[in-house]
Amino acid sequence: MLQGMGGAMHQTGHIEREPLRLGGTFAEWHAGLVAAFAIVTTTIRAETTDVGDHIDVSIYDTQVAGKDRRQIRLLGYSYARFSAQRTATASAICTGVRPCADRYINLLSNGACLPVLLRMIGREDLLEQPELRGPEADVPTALVEEIEAAYLGWTTRHTMREGLAIPQSHHILGGSVASIADVFNDPLFRERNPG
To answer: Is the whole model's pTM more than 0.85, yes or no?
Structure first.
């Protein structure tokens, strides 16, 4: 309900179907992130000025003001009368959680990173497609499916660690969907927390 009221669901889902909410308790996670930031900044202020602050975080307000979704749309409408709508095709090609040989990864490889990703997975031939030079929402469904199939073929041939290390070496942002055991066995975690 909070995602709907806050506007986060404005562009989620297929244009011919009902909007979809983001998985998990996203609105609460988002509000928690805002609250954590507020706690850190007020703690710094209190330590440097001896002045305390009252923190009041509205989950609804965090959804309305979220720059990753609604705020961008509101600004687009305010300044250019542009109203983004849900589309019939994916608007984030090769972005999101995908399975690997052993676990899952989540890469942000659309937009400016898409050509890098296509070269990385051995499909630089797709860069010749003129539809990839325009907005992602205008890429034909058949081409999106071909790219996604090639990408899925690549991710499932690699382990989670490989599926992150290779894109990171190409400056593609990503993370793993790790279990608690994965976190405790992660070499970087173990190096930073030897005890």
So the answer is: no
